[in-house]
Amino acid sequence: MQTNRPRAKAARQDESHKAKILAITGLLAAAAIAWAVFVSPALAEDAPAVESGTYTIDESHVHATFVVSHLGYSETIGNFDKVAGSITLDAANPAASAVNVTIQTASVDSGWEARDEHLRGDDFFKVEEFPEMTFASTSVEPTGDTTAKVTGDLTLLGQTHPVTLGVTLNKAGKHPFSGKMTAGFSASGTLDRTVWGMEYGVPMIGKDIKLMLQAESILAE
């Protein structure tokens, strides 16, 4: 019986091709394992190294920003320029951490003085009667390695109601300039201002206020 040489040759080529694919696949798998072994420690090293203790908010690097709809045409953005407070961090038990913040209501700054005077008056913040608003955390719920939900009591216009913020630890470690242990955070959330009795302009001026905060804090010596 005559051998079908073309078919035999094709079969050998096919087997050779499969062998090459298996070899390449094996090399890729080995490379992936090596990469994981190499990168994992590096990622671990990049994770914020938090030192427990009470941190004072750096008043030169803190921003308390609010955003509110103006008649649906645009969103007005404002800040409070005077913010102080402390953050107590517990590295071993993040849920035991705490935040306390005080904001001077007269420091409201929306970029337009006439509007700011209106905001300071009786329609909004009533700054002469209520010169401060405060936030004191009541619970910290970790949601990831560097994130948490922080719930606390916001006191505004003489009323206290809960607010929940999503908080991210941006970075922690020795400050490159001062050498002091520093922790930086971002936070955001939404509140309904009418809950605190601030009802002027609703619904033309939005009742739901978006909050955005950025803060650097320094470990107390």
Structural description of this entry:
The protein is an alpha+beta fold and 221 residues long. The chain has 2 domains: 1-46; 53-219, Lipid/polyisoprenoid-binding, YceI-like (Lipocalin), CATH 2.40.128.110. The protein is 23% helix and 46% strand. It has 2 helices and 10 strands. It has helices spanning 5-46, 113-120; strands spanning 53-70, 74-80, 83-89, 98-104, 108-109, 132-142, 147-156, 159-174, 181-192, 208-219. It has an 8-stranded antiparallel barrel with strand order 1-3-4-6-7-8-9-10. A hairpin with a 2-residue loop joins strand 7 and strand 8 (159-174). It is globular, with a radius of gyration of 28 Å. Mean pLDDT is 86; it is low at 18-45.
- Domain module tally: 2
| Lateral arrangement of strands in the main beta sheet | 1-3-4-6-7-8-9-10
Radius of gyration: 28 Å
Query: What is the residue-mean pLDDT, rounded to a whole number?
Result: 86
Helix-strand sequence: HEEEEEHEEEEE
Tell me the span between the first and last alpha carbons: 95 Å
Task: Reconstruct the topology from this structure.
Elements: H1 5-46, E1 53-70, E2 74-80, E3 83-89, E4 98-104, E5 108-109, H2 113-120, E6 132-142, E7 147-156, E8 159-174, E9 181-192, E10 208-219
Antiparallel strand pairs: 1-2, 1-3, 1-10, 2-5, 3-4, 4-6, 6-7, 7-8, 8-9, 9-10
